[in-house]
Each structure stands twice: as C-alpha cells, then as structure tokens.
C-alpha cells in the first residue's frame, strides 16, 4: 500500500479544519449541497475553477479575487477587485446564483466597531463587482452582525447564516438564519436563531448531505471548531464533537468547505493565531482529517474567505487510447522514460536507441479510478503510479488503491500545449521532475514548481 505523503510541520497554534461545514459552500451552482455530481475530474477540454474573494491581512477595505484549478495553488485574478462605497469589507462569502451572476455578502465594519449591517455586491464575471446595498439585520439591540455565509438548500432556497451579538454582551455571538424571499436577493425573512448551537459560537458553516445538515462552528471561549448535526436547517442541532476532537488545535476561524475532484472534501480556515491560512482534507464522511497544511501563495495575505467551485471550458485536451511521449516544458530535450521500472527524465533524441525510444513511449488511457482522469501504460502493459512519492511502473493488481495511485487529473501547464498531472488520491501533489527523476510532490505555489511539473504531450518516439 502507498505511504501517505509527508506533511510539513505546522506552526504550533493551528491544525486544520477540513470538515464538512458550510453556510458558504457554493459548489458549482448549488452551495451547501454535497453531491457526487461534483466528485469527478473535469472532462477533456474543461477545467475545474475554484474562486475565493478574501479581504487582506493588511487591508480590510478591499478584497482580491483569486482562482485555482486544484484548490491548492491560488493565483491572483484581480487585486482590489471590490471596494465598497463606504465602511469596510471582511469575511466575504461568494455565491453563484441561478441568474448566472456572482454575489458576495460580507461584514461591513471592522471588528472594533458596532456593525448592524451586512453588505451585498454583484458581478457577472467574478472580478468586476458592483455594490448592491447594505442590509440592516432586524434583531433587537443588535451590536454586531458578522461573517454572513451563503447556504443554498436542497429545495433551492437561498439562505444566509450570520453571527450576531447584542448590546447586553457585544462579544457573545449566536448564529442566525436568514432566508431570501425573492430571487433578486433583496428581501429576507426575519432572523431565526439556530436551535441547539446556542450563544458564544461564530463563523458557523453548514453543509447538507442527504437529509442531514452538518454545522461546523467556532466556540469563542475555547477557540476550537465544534461539530453538530440536525435534520432541519434551523435545528435543533446536536453538538457531538468539542474541544480538540480532530487534532486541529485552537485559534482557528472562518471554515469553508469545498468538494474536490476526487470526491474528498477540503476545508480552508484562517489561522489567525499564527498568520497562516490552512487546509485539510477528509475522505471518510468527516470522521478523520489530514494534517493541516499551509495554503501556498495566499497564506499570510488572505483572510476569511469561502470558495465556489465550477467546471469551465478551456481546460487541457489529451486524446486517450493513443501513444504519446512527454517532453519537459522547461528542459526541452528531456522526456519521460522508464528506467528499471522508475520514471526518469533523460535526454532523448533521434540518435537514441530503439529501446530508449520505446521506453519513452506511453499509451494514454482513461483513468483507472476516474474515466475523466488519465492513466499511462508502458510497452509491457504496466501502469504509471506513485509509490513512496516516486513515479514508477507496476502491473495493475486490481485494487482500488492501485487504481487511485495510477490515476492523474490533467491541469493546464505553464507553456502552450503543456499539461500538469495532479495525483488523483493526493490532491495538490503533482508529477514533478527533480534531479531528472519524476516524483509526486506537493505544490509549493512557486513558478519553478509549476514549470517542473509541466509536460508537453508530443508524437511518440516509437
């Protein structure tokens, strides 16, 4: 069996919240709903696109827009994409609505100030935003309305979960439910406190699987993320996991969940205690979670965001059931080649031997674990797979572990025509050459990593 990839040590305060919460979950066009329809690699010619709209550690008066094709390596789409006409913007939650437009709702004041409104803005392209309105949350003696999170229920209703406190104790927050009463998202039902979660909880994130609502919510006393379930959106919820139940540690906030292409669930959260943004993954119904990892590129810059996932056109196209050779995008004379069962990157040319050319030729087939992904066979019929992070060729033993180890999801590479191959069962890990050996390594968000993990499919050598 394959060894789990090494996880870099985290700074002491944070450990990860990769669970299945989500009042802000926007999966494609159905935020808050978890379903298998989204658990597949994008088809050839399409790409997965994750979008976040965080406020900045250095500035809570504006937000940047970032996008990613793998939920790990987020790249800036537009800096200062939206600045409200007045007040601040914090904790922006993003939704793609049924009208095709994108909406954000957000906290309108900095944490020190009284904040009785939540803001709304709209965009047709995710990067250019127009202010809509500030909405006064109608709760008697309201002191603060923070961290509004979108939640779309299975009946299609659009909801917001917002954390509110009153003037008698401005730092004790309770989650409230607002339901949109028109499709324009300009009118809302009276706020209803979520039963069972109770006071002193903030950043509540809800997601629904089947008939069950799952809530992840920060306990403001312990600073741990707690877990609760209910059969109705408004509750009553039963909190069944408290303290450091999953080993995530304390001083975390702003959880946001998204489903990955392989069916797992990734939770992002703000490690405000140590200035790091983290993610963690679950594959067993939210029972256990991977050790948290720092989110490359945006960690230390981005604050409290949620995520939308979409399938869009323009992804890489790679024909199946054909033979190809694969050239390094940044070392143009070097190609994939099997050497003693291992995949390396030697120089291959017209003067190479017939055996060397044959060893540099591979059949591209549908992914063993996901037909939208890709697997690769050598001339002897063995499959490319990762083992102990090394890329190698082995005979298919028919197990699900082998199928996953031997499946890769195609992502767009750094140069024209190039492709990056992400491990199916270790999202964020890519086939990457290092010292002319092919390994599966976690993306560090650098340009060099992207170049080293980009390969150009070309006419087969043999």
TrEMBL record:
Alphabetical UniProt keywords: Signal
PROSITE patterns: TAT
SUPFAM superfamilies: AbfB domain, Arabinanase/levansucrase/invertase
GO BP annotations listed: L-arabinose metabolic process
Domain of life of the organism encoding this protein: Bacteria
Molecular functions per Gene Ontology: alpha-L-arabinofuranosidase activity
Signal peptide (from-to): 1-24
Residues of the Alpha-L-arabinofuranosidase B arabinose-binding domain: 325-456
Name of this protein: Arabinofuranosidase
């Amino acid at each position: 069996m394959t060894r789990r990839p090494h996880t870099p040590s985290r700074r002491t305060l944070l450990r990860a919240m990769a669970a299945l919460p989500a009042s802000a979950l926007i999966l494609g066009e159905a935020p808050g709903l978890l379903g298998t329809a989204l658990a597949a690699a994008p088809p050839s010619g399409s790409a997965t696109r994750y979008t976040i709209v965080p406020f900045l550690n250095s500035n809570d008066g504006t937000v940047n827009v970032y996008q990613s094709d793998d939920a790990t390596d987020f790249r800036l789409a537009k800096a200062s994409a939206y600045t409200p006409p007045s007040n601040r913007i914090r904790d922006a939650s993003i939704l793609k609505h049924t009208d095709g437009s994108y909406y954000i709702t957000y906290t309108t004041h900095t944490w020190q100030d009284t904040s009785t409104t939540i803001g709304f803005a709209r965009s047709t392209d995710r990067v250019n935003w127009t202010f809509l309105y500030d909405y006064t949350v109608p709760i008697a003696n309201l002191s603060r309305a923070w961290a509004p999170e979108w939640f779309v229920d299975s009946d299609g209703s659009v909801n917001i979960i917002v954390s509110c406190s009153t003037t008698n104790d401005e730092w004790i927050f309770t989650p409230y439910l607002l339901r949109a009463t028109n499709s324009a998202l300009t009118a809302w039902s009276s706020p209803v406190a979520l039963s069972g979660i109770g006071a002193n909880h903030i950043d509540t994130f809800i997601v629904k699987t089947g008939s069950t609502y799952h809530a992840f919510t920060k306990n403001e006393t312990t600073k741990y993320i707690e877990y609760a379930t209910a059969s109705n959106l408004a509750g009553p919820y039963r909190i069944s996991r408290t303290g450091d139940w999953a080993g995530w540690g304390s001083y975390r906030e702003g959880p946001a969940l998204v489903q990955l292409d392989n069916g797992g669930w990734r939770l992002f959260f703000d490690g405000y205690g140590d200035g790091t943004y983290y993610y963690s993954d679950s594959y067993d119904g939210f029972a256990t979670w991977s050790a948290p990892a720092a989110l490359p590129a945006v960690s230390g810059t981005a604050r409290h965001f949620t995520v939308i996932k979409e399938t869009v056109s323009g992804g890489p196209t790679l024909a199946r059931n054909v033979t190809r050779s694969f050239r390094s995008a940044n070392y143009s004379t070097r190609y994939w080649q099997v050497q003693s069962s291992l995949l390396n990157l030697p120089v291959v040319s017209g003067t190479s031997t017939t055996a060397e050319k044959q060893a540099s030729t591979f059949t591209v087939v549908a992914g063993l674990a996901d037909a939208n992904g890709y697997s690769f066979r050598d001339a002897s019929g063995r499959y490319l797979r990762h083992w102990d992070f090394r890329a190698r060729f082995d005979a298919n033993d028919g197990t699900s572990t082998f199928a996953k180890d031997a499946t890769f999801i195609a992502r767009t590479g750094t140069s024209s025509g190039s492709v990056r191959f992400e491990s199916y069962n270790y999202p964020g890990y890519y086939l990457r050459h290092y010292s002319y050996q092919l390994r599966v390594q976690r993306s560090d968000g650098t340009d060099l990593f992207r170049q080293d993990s980009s390969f150009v499919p070309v006419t087969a050598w043999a």
